[in-house]
Design goal:
There is one protein chain. About 35% of the residues lie in helices and about 35% in strands. It is of the alpha+beta class. It folds into two domains: about 1-80, no CATH class; about 85-200, Sandwich (Immunoglobulin-like), CATH 2.60.40.1890. The model is unreliable at about 1-80 (pLDDT under 50). Bound molecules: copper (II) ion. Copper (II) ion (CU) binds next to strand 10. Copper (II) ion (CU) binds near residues 141 and 165.
Length: about 210
């Protein structure tokens, strides 16, 4: 009789509105050692077993319906768990030619074929004294400490969205120059990736 009970791992919590916390726990478990998540699951399993034992008749039917949802989310979570983040940087990155030497934007796309998310935490380049990570909300851009590359997904930087801001340039680059960018990641192997991107005209728009 254990299989139905272990399927109920997250179901009682979903039913009581604790689901966001449970999801947060699952997301954190993907970053950290798996032992932590397994321990949490074992504790939930014991609780689920006790709850199931206390239920009877129609209540058990209702629980079975919820179990369907819990089983589904558990399945999709494990479907994504195909090992650590596996990152690469796509072709097509560029730096639009800056108008001055105080700052320039830079755009790259990072692809994650792994089963865990990773974070882009910093970027270095010989062209700039420092590089900040920016996100755009409406027409306002805001510096952020990191940008996430989701498991099985991508971080696509571009005009009007997330971007790199190169500040205090050593010089104003010309169209056709190239700019090395070293991206530093956490929760990923390799932890750094260096790409060389071209300088494009100031008003350049990439084709989709
Ligand atoms: Cu910006």
């Amino acid at each position: 009789m254990t299989p139905p009970e272990s399927d109920a791992v997250t179901a009682p919590e979903s039913g009581t509105g604790v689901a966001p916390e449970a999801d947060g726990g699952r997301a954190r478990a993907e970053f950290g050692p798996r032992a932590g998540g397994d321990g949490r699951a074992r504790r939930r399993r014991r609780v689920a077993g006790a709850v199931t034992g206390a239920l009877a008749g129609g209540a058990a039917v209702a629980l079975a319906a919820v179990v369907g949802l819990g089983g589904c989310s558990a399945t999709s979570a494990s479907a994504h768990a195909k090992g650590p983040a596996e990152l690469s940087v796509s072709d097509g990155g560029y730096v639009p030619r800056p108008l001055l030497t105080d700052m320039a934007a830079a755009y790259v796309t990072v692809v994650n074929k792994g089963g865990a998310p990773a974070e882009l935490t910093s970027v270095t380049t010989p062209l700039a004294a420092h590089v900040t990570l920016h996100t755009t909300q409406g027409t306002t851009m805001r510096q952020v400490p990191s940008l996430t590359i989701p498991a099985g997904g991508r971080l696509a930087l571009g005009t009007g969205g997330d971007h790199l801001m190169l500040e205090n340039l050593t010089h104003r680059p010309a169209v056709g120059d190239t700019v090395p960018l070293t991206l530093h990641f956490t929760h990923a192997t390799p932890a750094t990736v260096t790409v060389t991107v071209p300088v494009r005209p100031t008003t350049y728009q990439p084709k989709d």
